[in-house]
Amino acid sequence: MQPVVRRRGVLGRQLRSELLMVFRRKRNIAMLIVLALVPILIGTAVFVAAPRPGEGPPLVSQIAGNGLFLSFAALTICLPVLLPLAVSVIAGDAFAGEASTGTLRYLLTVPVSRTRLFAIKSAGVLAYVAAAILIIIVVGAIVGATYFGINGVTLLNGETVSNGEGALRAAGIALFVFVDLLGLAALAMFISTLTEVPIGAMAATVVLAIVFAVLEAVPQLGSFRSLLLTHHWFGFGELLRGEVNMGWLLRDTTIPLSYTAIFAAAAWARLATADVTS
What we know:
10 helices; 72% helix; two-stranded antiparallel ribbon; mainly alpha; 1% strand; 2 strands
C-alpha cells in the first residue's frame, strides 16, 4: 500500500502546483477581474438608468425586477467574446507555454506518465474555466441582490419561481455554459500541443472562435450551422422558461461534448507521441 499512497501524494502535489501556477499568474488574475467587472458595470448602469419592467432587452429589463437576472445578463454578454478569450488564453498556454520556456521537455523526460501530465494540465484548465463562469454568476448575484433585491425569480415567460428554484436554475446555467466551453478548451489545448509559441496557440483559438461565429451568422449554410461549436452556446435560455425541455438541453450539449472528445483525444495523442529530443 505504501507505493500507492506515495503515488497519490505525488499526484496531489503536482495537481496543487498546477492550480497554484494557473491562479497565481497576473495575466490570469487580471482576466478574472475583468470578468467580475462585467456584472458590476451592468448592474450599476441598470440601477442608474432605473428601467421599468419590459423596457430594453428581455434579460436586461428583468434585472430591475430581480437581481439574479444580472448574472444571466452578464453571462450573455461575456459568452460571445470575453469567456472564449479567457479559455483561449488559459488552454492555449497549457503546453505551448511550457514548451516555450523549455520546461515541457523536462516534464516529458522525467519518469512521469504523459497521460498523468495531460490530466493535470487539463484539470488546471477546467478549474480556471469553472472559476471564470462562477465569478460572473456569484458577483452578478451579489451585485444584483444589493441593487435590486431577490424576491422570487420571474422567468422570461412571466412565471415566478422561488429563490431556491432560481438558484438551481442558475447552477444549471453555469453547468451548461461550462459544458459549452469544454469544446473550445479542448481545441485550444490541441493547438497548444502543435506549437512552442503560446501567443500563437491563443490567437489561433480566438480566430477559430471568430470563424465559428461568422459562419453562424450566414443563414445560407442552413443545417450545417448546427455542427458549429458556437451554435448552441445560448441554449441556456431554455432554463429561464417555465417548462424546461431537457431533451433540447441534452441536444444542445451534444456538439460541444463531441468537440471535446475529438480534440482532447487528439491533444493526448500528440502529447503522447511528442519528440522530446528536438
